[in-house]
Amino acid sequence: MDLICKPPVIDAKNVHLRITGSKSETNRLLILKALYPNLTIENASDSDDSRYLAKVLESKDATLDIGHAGTAMRFGTAYFATQEGIEITLTGSDRMKERPIGILVDALNSLGASVHYEGETGFPPLRIIGKKIAGGDLAIDASVSSQFLTALLLVAHIFEYGLVLRLKGTLTSRPYLEMTVSMLAQMGIATRWEIDAQSTTEIITVKPSETLQAQKVTVESDWSSAGYWYSWTALQQPGFEMELSHYHEKSLQGDSKLAVIFKDLGVQ
């Protein structure tokens, strides 16, 4: 029995489920693939955010509409800012135009980008003129959205001088940032994450990288979706077995802790 995470009534003893890939991993990989087309992605997420991001990355239109997809807006802003010779307007739904993006725009412009507001300052839509970004040293509040930080890190390796990102204060959403740095390292991009002993500032360094070896990456399935099936299995009779596809023993997703939690409920 093959399903795509749409729970019907299940009365079989052994069930095999194909669960869509992680949205967080997919969106990061989509940016890397746009920068390095020799990257092949398998088991990509079919989420709205991922579909919108894939669509705008492939589009040649002058105005790109990402709808409600917040990740696409943030990651897309950083990506298009690095694309020399293009000029596009990145916009979205009415709700998207109410979501602040000033922190990311300020950070990119301070590093040499050319991103401008088409409407209210600090909010989409954005007019982006792609150019070679110098990069360098950037201090930023560690409590801002991890998507802002990830957007910078995903493109930092094509900055002329790379990026030294200094995180001031308490870092929130650490697992998502750890996912980003781990993924960059797995792609062969030189990264380093350290703590300044004197200031306790966390520093993430990404070195410039002009090439990336051709490789195929299978996106790990979404652990949040797996949680429902762990719960289902915990309620079944002894001997019930379920197989979930594309999960890694050493996962980058914070929700993978479900596997440990459910051991106490008898699910192995």
Concise summary:
The chain has helices at 23-35, 48-58, 70-81, 102-110, 146-156, 174-186, 223-234, 258-261; strands at 2-3, 14-17, 39-42, 63-65, 87-91, 115-117, 126-129, 136-141, 163-168, 191-195, 202-206, 215-218, 241-244. It has 268 residues and is an alpha/beta fold.
Describe the structure.
The chain is of the alpha/beta class and 268 residues long. It is built from 8 helices and 13 strands. It has helices spanning 23-35, 48-58, 70-81, 102-110, 146-156, 174-186, 223-234, 258-261; strands spanning 2-3, 14-17, 39-42, 63-65, 87-91, 115-117, 126-129, 136-141, 163-168, 191-195, 202-206, 215-218, 241-244. The strands form 4 sheets. It has a 4-stranded mixed beta sheet. A 4-stranded mixed beta sheet has the order 8-9-11-10, with helices on one face. Helix 3 (70-81) packs parallel to helix 5 (146-156). The chain is globular. The two termini are 21 Å apart. Residues 5-9 have low confidence and may be disordered.
